[in-house]
Amino acid sequence: MIFLVAAAEAFLPGLEPFKTLLNGSLFELLYFIILFLYILEAVLFLQKKSVRNSSILYYFPEINFIITLLFFIFSYIYASNANMDYVHRFMASGGKLNLALDTHLE
Length: 106
What we know:
The structure is a single chain. By secondary structure, this protein is mostly helical. The protein has one domain (2-92). It has seven helices and no strands. The longest helix has 22 residues, at 60-81.
């Protein structure tokens, strides 16, 4: 997918958002892809009824919702488990924080 963004930037040099997409992480790029899928869903919704009722496009909103739900569940679990090591050390020490003055001493 990053190659597609790089190719689009090469052929459309005036588009600055592609540079920020390339500098970001792959996970940020996936969120932009989800946003693009919702925009594509809106465009497909405005098309003729015969185009919307084709086999894969008929289930496109449900597929889009499932992808978004999976990303939400992953992000929620990842955020709920983030930095739990510090919490466990804090609770094991009885609430006493022994912080070093700088990273060399730690």
